[in-house]
């Protein structure tokens, strides 16, 4: 029992702290080089890169909900609008079951989380001839804080109105 206590005492005093080892001065600063070397040698990756790789696998961090799309928007147009931000893995425009026309919203799945973050830095994008808004799909509905975005989302286009109809009559019909 005396030997094991001596070993424990020795461990406490010297072995867990490399800078206290007798006769050796250990430089603790070049940590990044050691981590890169460990990764190159097939060792375990550092914890942060491991967490990032797990987050990249999660669909909730890569799936973007896009609303405000026009009825003439195609899948190709949506992919073209989001491809500058990164590789688009999947793109889906939600269609009306009866008319088989787009409902005005869709989903874009990026291959990496970083590409999705890049796309969300500018939440409003011009897709086709309309201004569409996007957000992370897992977040759910978010109210817009900017007043100009709120006005843009409330604006509608009414066609085939007779020129003799007054502004008040049209306003009373819509309200």
Label the CATH architecture of the domain at 59-154. 2-Layer Sandwich
The amount of beta strand, in percent, is 15-25%
Largest sheet: 5 strands, antiparallel
Topology order in helix (H) and strand (E) letters:
HHHEHEEHEEHH
CATH topology of the domain at 59-154: Alpha-Beta Plaits
Fraction of residues in H or I helices: 25-40%
- What is the radius of gyration? 29 Å
Strand order of the largest sheet: 2-3-1-5-4
Shape: elongated
What would CATH call the homologous superfamily of the domain at 59-154? Answer: RRM (RNA recognition motif) domain
**How many extended strands?**
5
Could you say which structural class the secondary elements and strand pairing correspond to?
A: alpha+beta
Quote the average pLDDT: 76
Per DSSP, the total helix count is 7
Distance between the termini: 90 Å
What is the CATH C-level name of the domain at 59-154? Alpha Beta
Poorly predicted tracts of residues: 15-21, 26-30
Protein name: RRM domain-containing protein
GO cellular component, one term: nucleus
Keywords: RNA-binding
GO molecular function: RNA binding
């Amino acid at each position: 029992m005396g030997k094991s206590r001596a070993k424990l005492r020795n461990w406490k005093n010297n072995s867990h702290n490399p800078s206290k080892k007798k006769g050796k001065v250990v430089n603790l600063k070049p940590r990044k080089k050691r981590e890169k070397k460990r990764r190159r040698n097939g060792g375990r990756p550092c914890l942060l890169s491991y967490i990032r790789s797990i987050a990249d696998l999660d669909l909730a961090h890569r799936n973007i909900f896009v609303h405000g799309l026009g009825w003439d928007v195609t899948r190709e147009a949506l992919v073209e609008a989001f491809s500058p931000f990164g590789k688009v893995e999947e793109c889906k425009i939600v269609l009306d079951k009866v008319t088989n026309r787009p409902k005005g919203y869709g989903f874009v799945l990026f291959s990496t989380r970083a590409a999705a973050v890049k796309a969300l830095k500018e939440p409003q994008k011009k897709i086709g001839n309309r201004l569409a808004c996007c957000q992370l799909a897992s977040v759910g509905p978010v109210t817009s804080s900017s007043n100009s975005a709120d006005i843009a989302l409330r604006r509608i286009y009414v066609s085939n109105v007779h020129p003799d109809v007054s502004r008040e009559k049209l306003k009373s019909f819509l309200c």
